[in-house]
Design goal:
Elements (H helix, E strand, L loop, with lengths): L8 E6 L6 E6 L3 H9 L3 H12 E4 L13 H4 L4 H9 L2 H15 L5
Antiparallel strand pairs: 1-2, 2-3
């Protein structure tokens, strides 16, 4: 009998600007998409998606306390760090590759 469970692999990505190491699930579930589609603001939806996929990071405050993964804290990251998270995931690369293939197909195919 098939077992229904979360089989996504966890990737570690080192962010280029902040040096923070994030642990993030590489793949999407239906529940991940729910948060995105319920949010009208596309930028906030992106933050919610990243927050939902992240399982940990080593970000700390000035006193050495671990910082919680929240949308507000993600908003403090440099844009280059956010881009690294997005491009570091196979699920994003697969999506972009599929979109590129669709964009290069002829209009009659």
């Amino acid at each position: 009998m098939p077992i229904l469970k979360d089989n996504r692999k966890i990737k570690k990505i080192i962010l280029p600007k902040s040096g923070i190491t994030v642990e993030i699930k590489d793949g999407l579930l239906a529940a991940d998409m729910e948060a995105v589609y319920c949010e009208e603001n596309r930028i906030r939806a992106t933050y919610l998606m990243i927050k939902n996929l992240m399982v940990g990071w080593d970000a700390e405050d000035e006193k050495g306390n671990r910082i919680e993964i929240t949308v507000d804290n993600l908003r403090m990251l440099d844009i280059e760090d956010l881009e690294k998270i997005q491009t570091g995931l196979d699920v994003v690369q697969d999506f972009l590759a599929k979109a590129a293939r669709k964009g290069t197909s002829s209009p009659t195919s």
